[in-house]
């Protein structure tokens, strides 16, 4: 396990308040495109953090499937552990790590279910067998063995053979509405650059402007 004793130098390229776009979501899009162009595997993968009803935190990887001024869209099973956690506590975090670029984006905010029509649109865009998989897995529930899981998938494939697969009502999208977005750039000697955008939301749900601050590494 050589990696445990390695001390990488994260380079000189800097991250300056004046170089970042004023809108952090636009800035995020630019970094995502940079990660795509750099050939990073699954550049849209991020670690989603939730807190459940018992105040237990849990992280897992999911794929970003959309981003616009409203926030960050991903799709999953609403009855999964993450779905149950979000129902109890909508506070979530997202961590994108593009390590070979010495870049990280950390997001905090809350998750809300997207409009069912948006989930329908995304479901329709998926390959047939992925749509079937949404029917054949009760995500996060225990199952006896692989054979039983394969049997569930086979049964669903047969059920939807030569027909359109409707979206299960327990499967769909969430949008992470961000209140904090931090851009992190690794620098030499662990003197990294961290620029954080923060906004608040008033009782009517109206957001303030983004406030920008530099954080110590
Ligand atoms: C690269 C990668 C991408 C993944 N993308 C998704 C996804 O978009 N949606 C999803 O529900 N699970 C995705 N998963 C699986 C989740 O990490 C997780 O196992 C699953 O959602 C169940 O999580 P939960 O029990 O905490 O709800 C992905 C896993 C990996 C490694």
Automatic annotation (TrEMBL):
Question: Which GO molecular function annotations are given, in alphabetical order?
Answer: FMN binding; pyridoxamine phosphate oxidase activity
The cofactor named in the record is: FMN
Query: Domain Pyridoxine 5'-phosphate oxidase dimerisation C-terminal spans what residues?
Result: 171-217
Please list where the region (Disordered) is annotated.
Answer: 117-139
Instruction: Please state what the protein is called.
Output: Unannotated protein
Please state every residue range assigned to the domain named Pyridoxamine 5'-phosphate oxidase N-terminal.
Answer: 35-155
For this protein, the record's NCBIfam families field holds: pdxH (TIGR00558), PRK05679.1 (NF004231)
Q: Please tell me the species this chain comes from.
A: freshwater metagenome
Instruction: Tell me the InterPro entries matching this sequence.
Output: Pyridox_Oxase (IPR000659), Pyridox_Oxase_N (IPR011576), Pyridoxamine_oxidase_dimer_C (IPR019576), Split_barrel_FMN-bd (IPR012349)
**Keyword Glycoprotein in annotation:** no
Report the record's Gene Ontology biological process terms: pyridoxine biosynthetic process
> Chloroplast: is it a keyword of this entry?
no
Q: Keywords in UniProt for this one?
A: Flavoprotein, FMN, Oxidoreductase
Which segments show compositional bias classed as Basic and acidic residues? 117-129
| HAMAP family registered for this protein in UniProt | PdxH (MF_01629)
């Amino acid at each position: 396990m050589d990696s445990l004793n390695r001390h990488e130098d994260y380079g000189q390229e800097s991250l300056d308040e004046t170089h970042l776009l004023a809108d952090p979501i636009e800035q995020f899009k630019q970094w995502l495109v940079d990660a795509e162009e750099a050939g990073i595997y699954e550049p849209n993968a991020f670690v989603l953090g939730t807190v459940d009803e018992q105040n237990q935190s849990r992280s897992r990887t999911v794929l970003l499937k959309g981003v616009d001024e409203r926030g960050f869209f991903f799709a999953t099973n609403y009855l999964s552990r993450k779905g149950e956690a979000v129902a109890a506590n909508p506070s979530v975090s997202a961590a994108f790590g593009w390590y070979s670029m010495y870049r990280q984006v950390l997001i905090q905010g809350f998750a809300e279910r997207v409009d069912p029509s948006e989930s329908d649109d995304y479901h329709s865009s998926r390959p047939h067998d992925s749509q079937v998989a949404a029917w054949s897995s009760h995500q996060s529930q225990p199952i006896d063995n692989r054979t039983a899981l394969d049997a569930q998938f086979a049964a669903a494939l047969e059920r939807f053979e030569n027909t359109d697969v409707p979206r299960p009502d327990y499967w769909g999208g969430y949008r992470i509405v961000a209140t904090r977005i931090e851009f992190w750039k690794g620098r030499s000697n662990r003197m990294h650059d961290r620029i954080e955008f923060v906004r608040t939301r008033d009782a009517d749900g109206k957001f303030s402007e983004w406030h920008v601050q530099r954080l110590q590494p």
